[in-house]
Amino acid sequence: MRHGGQILIDGLAANGVDRVFSVPGESFLAALDGLYASGIQNIVCRHEGGAAMMAEAHGKITGRPGIAFVTRGPGATNASAGVHVAKQDSTPMILFVGQIARADRDREAFQEVDYRAMFGPLAKWVAEIDQIERIPEYLARAYRLAMSGRPGPVVLALPEDVLSAHAEVVDLPPFTAPLAQVAPLSIAAIAEALAGAERPLIVPGGTLWSQQAADDLARFAENWGLPVAVPFRRQGHMDNAHPSYVGDLGVGMNPALGQALQGADCILSLGSRLGDTLTRGYELMDPTRPHARVIHVHPSPDELGHLWHPDPGLVADPREVVAGLADLPAARRWDDWTAGLRGQYEAWQIPKPTPGEVRMEEVIRWLSENLPEDAVLTNGAGNYAAFLHRYYRFRRWGSQVAPTSGSMGYGLPAAIAAKLACPERVVVCLAGDGCIQMTLNELSTAAQHGAAVIAIIANNGRYGTIRMHQEKTYPGRVSGTDLASPDFPALARAYGGHGELVTRQDDFGPAFVRAQAAGTLAVIELRLDPQALTTGATLAETRAAGEALLRRD
C-alpha cells in the first residue's frame, strides 16, 4: 500500500527524473513526502514563476520533460508564465498543481481554480486526477503528450485527498519514444524539390535538435553549398563560425538577411513553424501571398498547412531528416548565393560603437572570444539581448537557452537550471536591470543549491525595449519606463556570492575572470550610458527618428 504522493514520485523516478523544481504548499504534502528519500533532488525556489521557468529550461537542455510542483490558486497562476514559455518554445514540461479536496469542489473553496479552463490555451493537455488508482495512467499519458509531435507543457492537478489516500497500484513502464525512421523516398522528394531552387534558404528550428543534428546540418550545407539562417533564439542549431551560417531571423535581425528571406524562392524549414517573429510580422513572408516554395518538415501534423502550403510536407523528426539529407550527394550547389549572405552576416557582426564607458558590443565580443565553446548563455527579454544575438557566435547546440516567447525574467532561473544540469560548464546569464528584477529573488535559490551562475546585468536605468518603442511612437513623452534598481553586486554578496560593478570597458574582462574564479554565484553589474539604447541607434537618434515620422504624418 502506498499513498498517492508516493505512487506519483515512484513513477517520476521510473521515468529517470533526478530533479524537480518546486515552491512547497500544503496542497501537495503527500507528494513532498514521496520525494523524501526518493533520490530525486527537490530544488526549492522562491517564486512559482521561477520554478516553472527552471523546469522549462531543464526541458530545453535535456530534451526530457522538466518537472515543477506548485500549490493551488496563486501558486498555479504564478507558474503560468513558465507554462506559456514552454508552449511557445515547444519545450517538454510537466507542471503538477496541488488542488482542493474533491468534496469541496464548485463551492469556491479556499484557492479553488478550474485548471482545465485556466491552462487550456497554454498547455497541450490539462487534467485532474480524481482516482488514486489512475495516477500511473495519467503520468504515462503526460509524458507521452509532452514529448510527442511538437513537444510542450502538460498540467496535472492533484486533489489533496487523492494524494493522501492509499492504494495498491501497479506502476506502468516508463515512456519510450516511438521509432523515428524516415523513408528514403521522403528524403529524395525533399532533395528533388530543393534542387529546383535558385535562391534557397534552410531554416532549422524547434526543440527537437541535438549536437549530432547540428553536425549533420553543417555537413549537408557544406556538401550542397547551402545557406542556413536560424529562427529567433535558435542560434545554437548550427556552428555560427561555419561558412554556410548566415545569421538569425528574428527581433533585431540583419536587414540584409531579411531581404534575403524576402527574395528566397525556396525555404526548407526543418522543425520551424515560420511564425511572425521570423518573418517580421509576416512582412517578409505573407501566408496569404506566398512568394517562395516551402518545404516543410515538422514533427506535428497540425503545423503542416497551418500557415504555409507545404510543397512537399513531411511529418517527421527533423533530426532524422537532416541526417538523411547529409548523406545524399549534392544535386547542385549555390556557392555564390551562400557566400554573399555569409559576407553580409560577417559585416553585420562588425561592432557599431555605442556611447559610454561600458559598451555592450565590446562585452559580448569579449565573451564570444573568451568563453569555452560549450558555455551556456541564457537571457530573458530586453534590448540588451539584441547585442547577444548580433555579436556572439554560438558554436554548439545547447549553448543558447532563451525564450522564443520573449519572457522577461527568464534568464536567471534558466541559468540556475542549466548549471544544476551541467555543473561542469560555464553558465552565464545576460539580463537587463528590468529583466533581472522580475526573478532576482532566485539568487537565493542559486545560493542554497550551489548553482555558481554568473549574471551580467546591463543597467541603463529603464525598461529599454519599451522606451525604444515609446520614443518611436510618442517621442519625448516618457511614461512608465524609468527604473530604479538596488545595488546588484551588494545583493549578490548578501547571498554569499561574488559581486562587482564595472564602469570602464577595460575592467570587464578581469572582473569576469574573478567572478568565475570565485566558484559561487556571481553578479557583474555593467553601468551603461543612458544614451545607449539599441545596437543601431542611441536614445537621442531614436527620438529624432520618431519626431521626423510624426512630422511626415
Structural features, described:
The chain has 553 residues and is α/β, with parallel strands linked by helices. It is 39% helix and 17% strand. It is built from 21 helices and 20 strands. The strands form 5 sheets. Strands 3-2-4-5-7-6 form a 6-stranded parallel beta sheet, with helices on both faces. Strand 15, helix 14 (383-391) and strand 16 (400-401) form a beta-alpha-beta unit. It is globular and about 70 Å long. The chain starts with a strand and ends with a helix.
- Helix count equals 21
Q: What radius of gyration results from the CA coordinates?
A: 24 Å
Count of distinct structural domains: 3
From the N-terminal CA to the C-terminal CA, the straight-line distance is 74 Å
CATH architecture assignment of the largest domain: 3-Layer(aba) Sandwich
CATH fold topology of the largest domain: Rossmann fold
| Unreliable residue runs | none
Q: Give a short account of the largest sheet.
A: 6 strands, parallel
| Arithmetic mean pLDDT | 95
The strand count comes to 20
Write down the CATH class of the largest domain.
Alpha Beta
**Order of adjacent strands in the largest pleated sheet:** 3-2-4-5-7-6
Structural class: alpha/beta
% residues in beta strands: 15-25%
Helix content: 25-40%
CATH level 4 superfamily of the largest domain: Thiamin diphosphate (ThDP)-binding fold, Pyr/PP domains
- What is the 3D shape? globular
